[in-house]
Specification:
Length: 229
């Protein structure tokens, strides 16, 4: 959502955000707390296709499995690209996972079971979804960003199970950006105040000779990030 808001505000173009994981109503509530982006929430399939193309004001359009499937989300984004005055800057497909769903309903943290407070649908990334996205990208020129939950660095079994799919994603992707929260990989007594709420982004690409790195710090007051480095 941070990426969607920055793109929409900076370039005044439409951004489509498709959630395959969390319901978009949940994301819409968080986005409205920001107050710096226009949000159009499609709560059902009828609303997703009823958007008034005559309005030239750019917005972030939220879709999820209740309002469209991935193919329909791609078609709507392509329609805006050709017919809407503000076009479509990017299609964000978020909420995918490279790990097969586990039967356990809890996670082990330091050998202590941690039960999840919220349970969202598990959506496993597939090669078919990647192929459809690539075809849309080539035919329309719309950049497509995938948000994918990958294996934790502390879970060897998960890394083993997700390796083939993550390798396929890396092969197809033009850019690969890894989000890393350093503070959660440290013992409590070793944590530093400078690392609090800090997210490090590391980007690689076949077209880059070096690795790109940057840091963002989350600000709970404005529900957004500020650039650190």
């Amino acid at each position: 959502m941070e990426l969607a808001a920055r793109i929409s505000n900076r370039y005044r173009h439409n951004v489509f955000f498709y959630s395959a994981h969390k319901p978009s109503v949940y994301i819409a509530k968080k986005a409205q707390l920001r107050g710096d982006a226009r949000i159009i929430f499609a709560g059902d399939r009828a609303a997703a296709f009823r958007v008034d193309l005559r309005r030239d004001q750019a917005a972030i359009h939220l879709l999820d499995t209740n309002s469209a499937d991935v193919g329909q989300a791609c078609k709507i984004a392509g329609r805006f690209q050709h017919e809407h005055p503000a076009g479509c800057a990017v299609l964000i497909l978020d909420g995918y996972c490279s790990l097969p769903e586990r039967l356990e309903r809890f996670d082990l943290v330091d050998a202590i079971p941690q039960y999840r407070a919220e349970r969202w649908p598990h959506t496993l990334m597939s090669r078919e979804v990647l192929a459809d996205a690539r075809r849309l990208n080539l035919s329309s020129g719309i950049p497509i960003v995938f948000g994918i939950t990958t294996a934790s660095l502390m879970d060897d079994d998960a890394i083993m199970y997700s390796f083939p799919l993550e390798s396929e994603v890396r092969r197809i992707a033009d850019h690969w950006v890894v989000l890393h929260r350093q503070e959660i990989y440290r013992e409590t007594r070793e944590r530093q105040d400078s690392e609090r709420n800090l997210v490090r982004l590391t980007g690689t690409s076949p077209s880059w000779w070096d690795t790109r790195c940057s840091g963002l710090r989350f600000d709970p007051k404005r529900v957004g990030f500020s650039t650190v480095a």
